[in-house]
Automatic annotation (TrEMBL):
The keyword Repeat does not apply. The lineage of its organism: Eukaryota, Viridiplantae, Streptophyta, Embryophyta, Tracheophyta. This is non-specific serine/threonine protein kinase. Residues 389-418 have a biased composition (Acidic residues). It comes from Medicago truncatula (Barrel medic). It is an enzyme of class 2 (transferase). It catalyses: L-threonyl-[protein] + ATP = O-phospho-L-threonyl-[protein] + ADP + H(+); L-seryl-[protein] + ATP = O-phospho-L-seryl-[protein] + ADP + H(+). It is found in: Cell membrane.
Amino acid sequence: MSCFPCCTSEERIKKRSLKKSIKQYHDAKVLTSFTNISFKTDSGKRRFIAEELAKLGKGNVTSKIFTYRELCVATENFQPTNMIGEGGFGRVYKGTIKNTNQIVAVKALDRNGFQGNREFLVEVLILSLLHHPNLVNLVGYCAEGDQRVLVYEYMANGCLEEHLLDLAPGRKPLDWKTRMKIAEGAAKGLEYLHEEANPPVIYRDFKASNILLDENYNPKLSDFGLAKLGPTGEKEHVSTRVMGTYGYCAPEYASTGQLSTKSDVYSFGVVFLEIITGRRVIDNSRPSEEQNLVLWAQPLLRDRKKFTQMADPLLEDKYPIKGLYQALAIAAMCLQEEADTRPLISDVVTALEFLANKKEEDGGQYTKETFASQGGNDNGNDEANVVHDDDDDDDDDDNEEDEDSDDDDEDADSDNDNDDKGHSDNDNDDKGHRR
């Protein structure tokens, strides 16, 4: 049973088997063998990359091997004016490959950074062996001497963070439809890693700065240096050193080091909340009670009357009220404290497909702004809930039993409790889908 029955189409997409092999690879060991990567000596590091890629890739690593000189030419000797980003791995430069005139993004390893040879190798293997429209394409790499450089396809619109959390002056904010489209695509990237890769791959670093956008705002996941192979057989998690970005890590992973695909689902919930609210997961510039996004949102998510207070002000009330309620419900499910009660990412994708492609019954989008302009109450009260949630069975019961405004408030509170119970029931049903 889906965690989001209201968002599931009549012909439910058949869930792909977790045991389904990736068609491109005849030997699953190609992907599994790099879990034991280790470096014994400094001298071994220099020759290790090329040898291991040849051995572990078993001929499937088709990414081009660049010389360092070629990449110096492509980036004009890594000119600072060509730098388009910087992260824990190192700096990213825009460049042009001379022979093909292909525009690329060149990421050079910072030798003093957080990621090293092992992360470099993992990323090359992951992106060479796994291919999906919502995963960034690895053009090639350089492992010449001490140099560790990755070459990606160039993404014209940068990362989601730049459009959502670091909006430059004069840049137009993302509208609601584009935000839902980005969330849907990013979730599909995770779905591919969790349910088509064999064994499953846990991304472990899902955040806005790792979601890249092409010229049409189609999202692609990048930065796979922290990716980890997920549990196989009857195992439900793998134990590993806690890594990732503070605020995005699932509570059970942060406290015990137990990692599962549901850890990625939690991180998705955090980013989806950022997409809806326009707030950073950790923002020390805000009042103390608002600095942690998840803690700030938790009490608001329990009261549907306050849902509109959570919408990004930059949306200027131009969003479908019903769509906002459903989006926040998805985020709340992903942010459940217990991993077992979170939905599978495939259920999240199904719900987001519904939201991203949904059209209002009356034509166009019935937004908070248009509702207010027609004389309605835009404060998220019971009247607004009844108007915009007319297909909610519990709200229909409220309409039949309305006697006075006090009764309306009591009924609304009761409905919220029933809604929560419904989600809990769906969570229990969803346990049947877990391996």
